[in-house]
Each structure stands twice: as C-alpha cells, then as structure tokens.
Amino acid sequence: MNLGDLADVAEIVSAVGVILSLIYLAIQIRQNTTSVRAASFQELLNHVAMLNLRLVDDPVLAKLRVNALTQDFDAASPEGARWRAFSLVAINHWFHAYSQHREGTISDEQWKVLSGGVRRSVRTVQSTWVTTRENYPEDFRRYIDAEIESSRSVGGAA
C-alpha cells in the first residue's frame, strides 16, 4: 500500500467521521427541542396554577371573579381595579400561550389543554379585554373575540 492509498483510506475514514458527527448533532438538536418544548409547556402550566392558587387563597379575589361573571361590581372601585389587574395578568398569559402555540413551541394537544382554560374564563375578563384589546395583535384579538362570542351564545361555563 503506497502513500496515495493511505490518503484515500484516511479521506474515507474522515468522511465517515463527519457523517457520524452530523447524525449525533441531529439527535442532540432533536432532544434539545423536545426539552425546550416541555419546559415551555411546564412554564405555562405553572402560571395557570399560580393564577388558580391566587383565587383559592384569596376569598376577596374569588368573590370578584364571581361578580365579574354577573357584572355585579363597580369597575371604578378598588375591587374593580384589583380584578382588572388580575384579568390583565390572565390575558397576558393567554397571549403568551397563544404565541407559543402559533410558533410551534407547544403542540396542538398542549394548546387544547390551555385554550380550555381560556374558554372557561373568558367571560370574567370581558371588561378588561374591551379596554386593552387594541394592545394585542389582530389574530389574537380575533381569537379572544370569538371565544367571548362563543361564551355568550352557549352561556359560557365559569
């Protein structure tokens, strides 16, 4: 075997090494993508839990939520301001989840879980939505408007 033959063998071994490296890199990227998606969904679920725990731990806030369903509170009162602030947190959470789904960070199945929460709660944030909707992109506004309309037509569960 001469020097040219050895160079050819070395080139083949080098090419195989590059191919194996690319396969390894593809596997690592796929695993990282899966981890990022799982972490994004977990972050959204943690935020939902935090919002729900606030309602459980704070009887005044829970009463405001019930009053928001019946529009039985003074929006200009301190309680009304408190509910608007809480509602804005919920709306921003929904927008974050909506954006994550649109970008493909969370799956359709995960979005179905999160959008169910929107559907169940959208009636309670209507007064806040009316005053803040223009701050959001058109596609999100259409989504929330449709959910509100749907909740009106079926009586919307709280």
Textual characterization of the structure:
By secondary structure, the protein is mostly helical. It has one domain (37-154). It contains 6 helices and no strands. The relative contact order is 0.09. The mean pLDDT is 87.
Notable features of this structure?
158 residues, single chain, mainly alpha
Strand proportion: under 5%
Low-confidence stretches: none
The averaged pLDDT comes out at 87
**What radius of gyration results from the CA coordinates?**
25 Å
Number of strands: 0
Distance between the termini: 81 Å
What shape does the CA trace take? elongated
User: What is the chain-wise order of helices and strands?
Assistant: HHHHHH
Major sheet characteristics: none
Q: What class do helices, strands and sheet pairing give?
A: mainly alpha
Number of helices: 6
Can you lay out the helices and strands and say which pair or pack?
Blueprint: H1 3-57, H2 59-70, H3 78-102, H4 108-121, H5 126-132, H6 138-154
Helix pairs in contact: 1-2, 1-3, 2-3, 3-4, 3-5
In short:
The chain has about 160 residues and is mostly helical.
